Each structure stands twice: as structure tokens, then as C-alpha cells.
Amino acid sequence: MSVNNKNILVSTEWVAxxxxxxxxxxxxxxxxxxxxxxxxxxxxxxxxDINIHLKHPIHRDIPTISQxxxxxxxxxxxxxxxxxxxxxGKNRSATWTYWIMKLFSHNDVRIMNGGRxxxxxxKRDLVTTISNSTKTNYKTYQLNTSIRxxxxxxxxxxxxxxxxxxxxxxxxxxxxxxxxxxxHKQPEIxxxxxxxxxxxxxxxxxxxxxxxxxxxxxxxxxxxxxNIDINKEIITYCxxxxxxxLTWYILKYIxxxxxxxxYDGSWTEWGNSIGMPIKKIGN
Length: 283
What we know:
Blueprint: E1 9-10, H1 12-17, E2 24-30, E3 46-49, H2 65-74, E4 82-87, H3 92-103, E5 109-112, H4 115-121, H5 151-156, E6 163-167, H6 171-175, E7 199-200, H7 216-225, E8 233-237, H8 242-254, E9 260-262, H9 266-270
Parallel strand pairs: 1-5, 2-3, 2-4, 4-5, 6-7, 6-8, 8-9
């Protein structure tokens, strides 16, 4: 069975048909807008850099409430807007943005399946002109903390049989060999390894070669093969939270797992903290 819920996931065709719909705001998200959005983007879309627009200005944390409100206002997004997210990196920037927007309780936010990769592969229109947004007055609400796990929360759940922790990083990171994906700059993190009892399911195992989400049946088989019970509580993590957000999105919105959280502190926080229990392959 394919994923067929336009309330969470839309096709490139749907986006093309709604480019001029005033109630739809299309957002390209990226870690480097200069190499993506600036070179060409979906007509009428706006661009957000997740390391600038969706990050606390001082701390390694989510944006402040006022920062988030200012972003919504300047982007022309109202509380009733339908927000369509797409990006590079197999859409992990988009799912991270989706998680942030759900933290701030935005109701109608969706992912464009296949992201930037699929749009370009289909030779759809790209423009370099940047659209002007009509400023809005976005109303912010209390954070939805039910989808976020803190370090303390994760530690309390380490030996809870009703909670499963999924490490979405590469094998090299999980095993304690590297601090980041192979081929990438290795950040200085005090300790390598993984959270005890974590189940290793790399984030990109759940994305097809054409960067789309697989069918529901394939996703169910994948998680069942790792003995994941989607009816139990699940916590996902990686190094920064971005990869973990994609797994969170799949579990919560495609497979309808009722209680899934992202540990956004992830390994950067856990591996740099004093006294945190750590496992490595072979110990």
C-alpha cells in the first residue's frame, strides 16, 4: 500500500498545480541555500536555512518563540496557511523543519515527496527570482513537548521495556568508529559510540533510490525486521537531530505510531556530557 495522504505528504504534481494558490506557502529548506535555493527553486517558494532560521541565535537549541514568530511573519505564513516543505539531502532538512513546526503547533504542514531531487529530475520549472512575502501576524502557542525528548528523559527511559530508542546514524557512528558520517568532516565529540539498548536503523534505509518514501508495507517490514513495535514509545536520535527527524516523521505520520519523540540533543549532547552511559560495538 502506498502512502496516499495529502494531509501529510504531497506529490510534485500536486505542488505544481498549487504554485499560485494563495493559501499554500512553499518552502525550500536547506543547510546551504547558496548551493540549492539561490541556484534555482520552485516558483513562488521561499528559502529557509535550517542552521540560521530554525536555530537558536546563541545556544545549540531550537529557535525561540519570538524568532519563530518573526520567521512566520516575514514568510507570509498565517496560522491557517498550508505549508509545503521540500529540500535536499533526501528531504531530511524538510522533515527537521516539519518537526520544528509541529513543536510550535502549526496545523497544516506537509512534505513534498521526493524533494528537490524529484522536482529537478522531472525537469519542472526552476526560477532564481525571490518572491516577496506579505507580512502576517502569526500567533504562537505553547510548545508541543510530547514530540521532543530531553537528555534527562532519554536517560530515564534507558531500561524501560515499553520504550525503544532508535539510532539513525551510520554504522561507523553507531559502532564508535567515527563522530559523523564517513566522508564528512569529523566534529570533536568527547566520546564515540551509542546510547545503551539503542536499535540501529540508518535513516536512509527508509528512503528509496529516487529519494521518495517507500510503501507502507515496505516500511512496516523494515521496522518489524528490527523488532520495532510501533505501538510502544519510540525515541529517535542521530548526531544533530536532522536524520532522526526523518525517521520520526515516518513512524509518527506514515505508520501512525502514537508516541514518537526526537531527541534533538542527540549524540552531540550525549557524547559530550559527563557521566552518560555509552556503548560501543564489542564492549
